[in-house]
Design brief:
The chain is an alpha/beta fold. The protein has helices at residues 37-43, 69-82, 95-106, 126-139, 145-152, 157-160, 162-173, 177-189, 216-225, 241-244, 246-256, 258-267, 269-277, 284-298, 306-320, 323-335, 340-354, 356-374; strands at residues 8-11, 22-26, 48-52, 88-93, 111-117, 203-208, 230-234. The chain is elongated and about 80 Å long. The relative contact order is 0.11.
């Protein structure tokens, strides 16, 4: 690749699951992968976590060549491909969120979902970024410590967590001055305000109550412009909620990656692996669609227990005559705690409202599944 090189860090999955989904975490300007330490530790209980550093930050090499945020998004795809490729959930803070928006527009087929945290479709003015770039080149990133302290954290956090803040500012001082300046110039050119309607990825926009760098109104505007996007506010945090409230951030990210996990829990690994193994280029989008919405949105909702959702699903499938799907959901109903007698009772109930022929066909399907389970 001719663009910037990004170096990443993989956090091992503690569950040793062979089906663990991938979450990619993008940093804010002036921070490193350490920003995500606590969040990554939380998520890695059951998902793979890939973190990366911006050019000249942390482990990523310094650069003297200008780059764009579109090129940074391409570099993230190169990094993901280097560890096996596939689709992933992406969460990014500030500049990391800007990379996420570029990913959603340029590589939407690779994203399962996007979480844009304390970010914007347009940061500040070109003049303000040119001034900061000049300051970095003239006096180094050490000259930005005071400004960053004021912009990064909510009131009182510096006093509550002086050690964490000191480590973060030390990492800022270690950032390559020229690379930081080039990041600033890339931000000066970044503007996706007219392109947000092109985002087709399920998106969550997260704001910090005390974030003055990217105020909550900017996240609300992004959410309003992206079809189907959601917005939420984290109380009591500034610009870096992953540092201030990592458990809250981890929970928000986890809520967006529930799809494949719920799908496997309900349908079983064998069925899901079979479905994924038979994916073709024509059906790939459909598989991502049902994982995101059927399993990540509907089945993951807390309003009904899974056994009740199974009953509703059985009734709907019988009524619609969708017997190709019925056997799968009879198995799912058994997994979700229903016994054969309860499933039979549900089929009897549909005989009155959906018709005897529909119930008769459903009993044939159910009997085959019950026999499979017994054997």
């Amino acid at each position: 690749m001719t663009g910037p090189l990004l170096v990443g860090t993989i956090t091992a999955v503690r569950s040793h699951s062979s089906h663990a989904e991938l979450v990619v975490l993008g940093p804010s300007l002036g921070t490193t992968t350490a920003l995500w330490d606590s969040v990554a530790s939380d998520l890695s209980a059951d998902v793979r976590v890939l973190r990366f550093d911006l050019p000249g930050h942390g482990a990523s090499p310094a650069t003297v060549q200008p780059f764009t945020f579109a090129e940074l998004a391409d570099a993230v795809i190169e990094l993901v491909d280097s560890i096996g490729g596939g689709t992933f959930t992406y969460a990014g803070i500030s500049a990391g969120g800007a990379i996420g928006l570029e990913l959603a527009i340029r590589h939407g087929d690779r994203l399962d979902s996007l979480i844009a945290i304390c970010s914007s479709a347009r940061f500040g003015t070109a003049e303000s970024w040119a001034e900061r770039a000049a300051r970095s080149r003239l006096s180094g990133t050490a000259s930005l410590v005071t400004l960053s302290t004021e912009r990064w954290y909510a009131p009182g956090f510096v006093d509550r967590a002086p050690g964490l803040v000191a480590r973060s500012l030390s990492q800022l001082v270690d950032v390559d001055d020229e690379s930081y300046a080039l990041c600033c110039e890339a931000l000066a050119d970044f503007d996706l305000r007219d392109s947000l309607g092109e985002v087709g990825v399920p998106t969550l926009c997260v704001a910090g109550e005390f974030d003055h760098a990217t105020p909550p109104t900017q996240l609300e505007e992004i959410a309003a412009a992206i079809p189907g996007a959601r917005y939420t506010l984290i109380d009591g945090v500034g610009h870096l909620p992953a540092a201030e409230q990592p458990a809250t951030v981890a929970a928000l990210i986890r809520s967006r990656i529930a799809g494949m996990r719920v799908r496997r829990e309900v349908l079983g690994d064998a069925h899901v692996d079979g479905a994924l193994a038979s994916v073709t280029p024509e059906s790939a989008d459909f598989q991502r669609f049902i994982t995101r919405y059927a399993w990540g949105e509907i089945w993951a909702r807390p309003g009904l227990p899974r056994r009740e959702r199974s009953l509703l699903t059985l009734a709907a499938l019988i009524t619609g005559g969708h017997h190709n799907e019925l056997a799968m959901h009879v198995r799912a109903a058994l997994t979700n705690g229903l016994d054969p007698a309860e499933i039979s009772e549900a089929i009897m109930h549909t005989a009155i409202y959906a018709g005897v022929p529909a119930a008769n066909s459903a009993f044939d399907v159910a009997k085959r599944v019950f026999a499979e389970q017994e054997s």
